[in-house]
Amino acid sequence: MDVQMFRSFEGRIGRQSWWIGTLIMIAVSIVLYFILGTIMGSGLTSMDPQKVLEPGFLEGYMRNAALMQLIMLVIVAYPVTALMAKRLQTVC
Predict the structure, then answer these.
(1) What is the pTM of this model?
(2) Other residues' Cβ atoms within 10 Å of the Cβ of residue 14
(3) Which terminus of the chain has a smaller tally of CB atoms within 10 A, N or C?
């Protein structure tokens, strides 16, 4: 697996390389979700059923979840875009 596949927009990759890269990015996103959820306290593992009924809990939880999604988008957007651009390149 070539790391260059995630770092540049030049070149072209086949279906197999694209699928492998896509699966890698899905795995990275899942791991990143759990890491950020643990750090920020807004992952699925931090959800306490008793706290959900408290006023104001859901508001803070959703704010942290939205911030976590924004951080994930910033981290994953460039490699995913580079991967997709390489797959969509046409041969001239």
Answers:
(1) 0.77
(2) 10
(3) C
Contact 41, 22 (CB under 8 A): no
Element (H, E) at 29: helix 15-40
- Distance between CA atoms of residues 13 and 4, nearest Å: 11
Q: 20: which residues sit within 8 A by CB, 6+ positions away?
A: 1
Residues 2, 72, 17: CA angle, nearest 5 degrees: 25
Residue 9 structure tokens: 């927009």
pLDDT digits (tens, 9 = 90+) for 57-89: 778 778 888 898 999 999 999 999 999 999 888
